[in-house]
Amino acid sequence: MRSNAPLFSCLIEYAQKNKIPFHMPGHKQGRGILNRFKTDLFRIDVTELPDTDNLHFPEGAIAEAQKLMAEAFGALESFFLVNGSTCGIQAMIAAVCNPGDVLIVDRNCHSSVISALILCGVIPRYIYPEYIVETGFVGGIAPVNVKEAIDRYPEAKGVIITSPNYYGICSDVRAIADVVHSYDKLLLVDEAHGAHFYFHEKLPKGALQCGADLCVQSAHKTLPALTQSSVLHVGSDRVNVNRLKSCLRLFQSSSPSFILMAYLDAARCMMVENGRKIFNDLLEYAAEFTNNMNENTNGICPGKRLVGKNAVYDVDLSRLVVNFSDCAVSGYHVAEKLNQQYNIQVEMADWKNIICIPSSGNNHDDFQALEAAIYGILKSNQGIMPKNIVSKYPKAPYKIPPYEAFYSDSEVIDLRNSTGRIACDTIISFPPGVPVLCPGEAISTDIIEFISEIKNAGGKAVGLVNNEGIRVLKFV
C-alpha cells in the first residue's frame, strides 16, 4: 500500500529509477548543479526579511542579483520570475496593452499568451508561421507577414512572437524587430526555450541581441535552474518600466520562493563562469549524435537543412529533434519504448518526432545511450506510424476576441458534434503547449479530426471536458 503522501512517494520512486534525463529542468535532478551550490534547501527556504530583501521592492541582494542577470544577458533591466514564464508573458502584454487594444500575435504561441489576452482584454490579430511538411511541425514567422499584419492593423500596439519554438526553430528576429520598430511599435518575444543562446557563439542569436523590446526566458528549460524559474528582460527604452513593475506585482506571487530565486542567481553565475565550455561540449555531443544518426538512417535529424525554407532563419543545434516521417514508427511509440525499455525519458513526442533537451546535466554517455536505443527501436520495427489525416496544421477561423468567448454564457457539448460552434476554452496539445484551438475561434471538421488524431496516436489534448466534451458559446 502506498503511503498517504502519494505525490511525494511518486517523485521518490521516479528518482530511484535513475532515468537518463533528456527533459527539463536543465539541472537534471541536480546533475548540472556545481557542488558549491548544492545545499540544504530547507535552510534557504525563507521569506522577505531584513536580511533577505523583497522581490517586489528589491533594494539588497535581489536587486544586485537582478542587475548581474541583466549584465549577463545584455538587458537594460532584468526581473526574476517565480511563477514561470507564464507570469512574465502576462506582465509584458499588460505593460504594453490596455483592455480593448490590438496586439499582433504569433498563432504558434504558448497557451500562456492566450491566457494573457483573456486576462488583459486584448484583441489578437493572428499571424501564422509556415508549416514544414517534411517534419510535421511549424517553421518561422516571415518578416514580410509581420509587415503585412501591421499594415492591415495599424492600431496594433505591438507584436509578440515565439522564437525559438519547442523544436528549436528560430525566426529572423532582427528583421522582424526592424519592421516593428519602423512603425514605432514594440516587439515582445517569448524566448522561453532560448535562455542558453547567450553563452555560445554557435548558438542562434538571442532576442535581446536582435532588438527585442521585451523578452521572457524559462531559465529552468535549458539552464541549471529549478522548475518555474524564469526571467523577464527589458531590451530597450521604449518600455514603460514602472508600469511593467506594477504589472509584475499583479501576476507574481506575493510570497515568492527564495529557493527559486537563489538558483536563478546560481544558474546565471555558472553560465557566466563556465557556460561557453558547457555548451561547447554539448554542441560537440549533439553534432556527433546528429551526424551518426543521419549517416546510419535516412537523415532523420533535420537540423540545419531546415534553414532558409519555411521562414526558418536558424536552428538550435543543441536541441535534438529526431523525425520518424519515413520510418514505420511514430514519435509517441519511440518515446514510450525509450522510457520503458531503455530507461531514457525524452522531453516530448508528437506523431512524427521526439524532442530531447540536453543541458549541463547531460554527459557524452547519455548521448551515446540515446543513439543506441533509437537504433534498437528502429531495428525492431514494431511500431505503427499513425495515419496523418492532415497535410498541415489546421487553422481555426477567428470569430470573436478570446476574452469575450471565455467569459460568455457557455454550454458543454460533445466535441464530435461541435462543428461550427465557437470555442470558449483553449484546447492544447501538451507538450508543446501550443493551442490547437483558442477561445473565440470556430470549430471546424478539420480541427475535430486533428484533436482526435492526437488522442488516437497517443498524445494529449488538454482543455476538453472529461476528455470528450468542449465548452462552446450558447446559441442566442
Computed structural class: alpha/beta
Helix content: 25-40%
Please report which band the strand proportion falls in: under 5%, 5-15%, 15-25%, 25-35%, 35-45% or over 45%. Answer: 15-25%
Give the overall shape, derived from the CA principal axes.
globular
Q: Quick check: average pLDDT?
A: 93
CA distance, first residue to last residue: 52 Å
Rg to the nearest angstrom?
22 Å
CATH class of the largest domain: Alpha Beta
**DSSP helical segment count:** 14
Architecture overview:
The protein is of the alpha/beta class. The protein folds into three domains: 41-267, Aspartate Aminotransferase, domain 2 (3-Layer(aba) Sandwich), CATH 3.40.640; 275-380, Alpha-Beta Complex (Aspartate Aminotransferase, domain 1), CATH 3.90.1150; 402-473, Orn/Lys/Arg decarboxylase, C-terminal domain (Ornithine Decarboxylase, Chain A, domain 4, Alpha-Beta Complex). It has helices at residues 6-16, 41-44, 61-73, 84-96, 111-120, 143-152, 173-182, 219-222, 241-251, 258-296, 331-342, 364-380, 402-407, 445-456, and strands at residues 20-22, 77-81, 102-106, 123-127, 131-132, 137-138, 158-162, 169-170, 186-190, 214-217, 230-234, 314-315, 320-323, 344-346, 348-349, 353-356, 410-414, 427-429, 434-437, 461-462, 469-473. The strands form seven sheets. The chain has a seven-stranded mixed β-sheet, with helices on both faces. The protein has a three-stranded antiparallel β-sheet with strand order 13-16-15. Strands 19-18-20 form a three-stranded antiparallel β-sheet. Helix 4 crosses helix 9.
